[in-house]
Amino acid sequence: MAITSRDGLIAALSDSLHVLLDKASIAGPSAGTLSSLWRATGQPGLGAIPTTASACNKTTPGGLSLADVASPQFNYLAWLDIAAANAFSSLEIHDRLCHQGGLSGSVATVQVVNLPLGLSGVSSERIGEADHSELQWWLEWYANTGVTAAVASVNVTYSDDTTGVIGVPVPSTMKAPNLIPILPLPAGKTGLKTVNSVQLNVSTGIAGNLGVTCTRLRASVFAVQSSRSEILDWAALGLPEIFNDSCLMLTQYSTVSGTGAIKGVLRFVSG
């Protein structure tokens, strides 16, 4: 049965699933940048660099996965305890839906992405609202690009099936594993359903390796002090559902260089 009362939640917590987080630091990112921890070693393990457009699910190396539950039950994130080596860093838990890497930072021609949410393995439950407003699309760096700043013209298909181009500024010397959101959306558009291609206006000078990633935020926590546990219970988290086949990953915004080590415990309940 689904959890429908406080008593039901308390009963479920007594039999919750404990999952450890233990991510090593990545030295590359500069202070004040947003990073993906997909490529950080530890628990969950090192994520692979995607070479083609592909869906992410509970079997994708690098993601934190849970055993599926049968309807009408659901998995929920009910408790979180995380300590970050970097003070004043924001940590977010995302469901990684689909991704593609292998784009070059040293060409100014159109690079085809063709990353639709309709890839086999991404369920409508994981996508959320039909207008795609719950999703976040990113340019993700797997290897550093060059010192020349550029603008990425990202050709997209919006939720209403119209197409357009979003200009995304790319600062100089973007470092792995930095993330840049594919924003802003034009007035009247609620979300993206496909990224079709990416084109830089100039070469950054180094090919590096970047790609496109789509995620859906499930929870977040702010680490005020270095290495101090930040604890959020079910009420603070909002008891987010973790849908079958989810591929959970961490992102971090830090005010100092490097991501720092991340350790913690997540508790999941089903009901």
Briefly characterize the structure.
With 271 residues, this protein is mainly beta. It has helices at 6-13, 124-127, 234-237, and strands at residues 17-23, 33-36, 42-43, 54-55, 75-84, 89-103, 111-116, 135-143, 150-158, 163-170, 179-181, 192-200, 209-223, 230-232, 241-242, 248-254, 262-270.
Write up what this structure looks like.
This protein has one domain (6-270). Helix content is 6%, strand content 44%. It has helices at residues 6-13, 124-127, 234-237; strands spanning 17-23, 33-36, 42-43, 54-55, 75-84, 89-103, 111-116, 135-143, 150-158, 163-170, 179-181, 192-200, 209-223, 230-232, 241-242, 248-254, 262-270. The strands form three sheets. Strands 2, 4, 6, 8, 11, 13 and 16 form a seven-stranded antiparallel beta sheet that branches. It is globular, with a radius of gyration of 19 Å. The relative contact order is 0.33.
How many domains, as an integer?
Answer: 1
Give the strand tally.
17
Mean pLDDT equals 94
Question: What Rg, in angstroms, do the CA atoms define?
Answer: 19 Å
List the helices and strands and how they pair.
Elements lengths: L5 H8 L3 E7 L9 E4 L5 E2 L10 E2 L19 E10 L4 E15 L7 E6 L7 H4 L7 E9 L6 E9 L4 E8 L8 E3 L10 E9 L8 E15 L6 E3 L1 H4 L3 E2 L5 E7 L7 E9 L1
Antiparallel strand pairs: 1-3, 1-17, 2-16, 4-6, 5-14, 5-15, 5-17, 6-13, 6-16, 7-12, 8-11, 8-13, 9-10, 9-12
